[in-house]
Amino acid sequence: MHGGNIYENRIKYDFSVNLNPAGPPDSVQDALVAALNHVEEYPDPEYRELRRGLANYWQLAEEQIVPGNGASELIPGIIRTLSPKTCMVTAPCYSGYETALNAAAPSSRIHRIPLRAEDDFTLPENICQEIARVKPNLLILTNPNNPNGKRIAANRLREITDTCRMVGTVLLMDECFLALSGGAADSLIHRIRSEALPAVVLRAFTKTFAIPGVRLGYAICSGPMAERIQSELPEWNLSVFAQYAGRAALEAAAGGNVMRGTAAGGTPAPETSAGGTSGYLTASVEMVAREREYLMAELESLGFRVFPSDANYILFQSRDRELHQKLLDKGILIRDCRDYHGLTAGFYRTAVRTHRENMALLQCLRNIK
User: Fold this and answer.
1) Which residues pair with 113 in a beta bridge?
2) Which residues pair with 174 in a beta bridge?
3) Which residue has the higher pLDDT, 309 or 265?
4) Can you name the residues that pair with 332 across neighbouring β-strands?
5) End residue of a domain, out of 253, 271, 289
6) Do 40 and 173 belong together in one domain?
7) Range of the domain at 291
8) Is residue 346 helix, strand or coil?
9) Residue (of 185, 193, 202) closest to 222 by Cα position
10) How many other C-beta atoms are found inside a 10 Å radius of the C-beta of residue 321?
11) Confidence of residue 138 (pLDDT cuts 50, 70, 90)
């Protein structure tokens, strides 16, 4: 179900988790050290400074933001809030959605939209017709999709949101990988600012800032829905470490001024400003794009079927159904995707890492072949 299982094996390179290969900003690491001085204090249960920083960053009201202990805590909280009778998901997609549905809304009927390998796992042309036919209470999409990494085309996304509004479907859009894909302008958050969308957008600091051990994510939606989601979460679910790290990450993303509110008041949010993202994010997006193209080309040259990706991970297919184990024997962990709905043995996902790490993976693959 998840990557990152480094505790049962001796791992030298972990390509099973999709983190920013640039690593966390120095300011975030400094903030985590500073948080040690506050371990004898209860964390702020209202997340005042973190929520204020997020509101300034996205030019939203603080009441629209729900911080959580990673996206994995927020997903079941959102599902419990909505209690959908019918939920539509794509297949393949992140399996945690169905796990959360089975736990938080066990009577919900799950309707899967199949994505086909021959179409590079893009959304089907008839998805809006299916939404209109099924009229699900909840539609869950990931942009870019996991495990194949393709972003949703902007015009297709608008068609989907218009259809959802027409039939009364709430859209849960998981954008945890969008910031590193170069598609920041496609974020649904920008439309939440200006339109009354029946939508919840999910984001995580985990992937963007490479801090999975901190556990920090957030949801953005309309005020009344945000309050209901918050009521489904436990008190003090964010440690002082998470809150300090989140504030420092926002400072890094916004060029050091987001906590003072200069991103608000009509100034474009940092991810959509004329100059693009701030230095840390700009460099990260460029690094991911450069290494992704390199890794995709090399994987293809080795004879693998490589599916197009915009993200910091790549889905590929091999005739070798034991490739995962062969790499594991050499201390390299990739994601075996046979447990995804719609995929079988021989489908694998690899993260895009630093050039040195990517070369190590490729050399190992050459030796195996």
Assistant:
1) 90
2) 142, 202
3) 309
4) 13
5) 271
6) yes
7) 13-22+280-368
8) coil
9) 193
10) 14
11) very high
The residues, any chain, with a CB within 8 Å of residue 36's CB and separated by 6 or more, are none
Q: H helices within 125-182, ranges in order?
A: 127-134, 154-167
Residue 179, phi then psi, degrees to nearest 5: -60, -30
Share in percent of the chain as helix, strand, coil (round to 5) = 45, 15, 40
pTM for the model: 0.92
In percent, the amount of the chain with pLDDT more than 70 equals: 91
Task: Give residue for tokens 């790499």.
Answer: 327
Q: Is 358 exposed, middle or buried (0-12, 13-18, 19+ CB in 10 A)?
A: buried
Pairing of strands 86-91, 109-114: parallel
The residue type of 126 is: N
| Count of structural domains, the chain | 2
List strands edge to edge, sheet with 347-351: 305-306, 313-317, 347-351, 335-336
| Pair (221, 306) in one structural domain | no
- Are 95 and 337 contacting, i.e. CB atoms less than 8 angstroms apart? no
Beta-carbon contacts of residue 369 (< 8 Å; ≥ 6 apart): 302, 303
Per-residue pLDDT band at 279 (split at 50, 70, 90): confident
The number of angstroms, rounded, from the C-alpha of 143 to the middle of its chain's C-alpha atoms is 8
Lowest mean pLDDT among 180-189, 259-268, 360-369: 259-268
Residue 3: the pLDDT is 58
The SS3 of residue 14 is strand
* 250 plus 336 within the same structural domain: no
**Which of 344, 331, 64, 15 has the alpha carbon at shortest distance from 224?**
64
Contacts (Cβ under 8 Å, ≥6 apart) of 10: 331
Q: Which of 235, 187, 205, 241 is nearest to 60 (CA)?
A: 187
> Which CATH number covers residue 234?
3.40.640.10
- DSSP assignment letter at 42: -
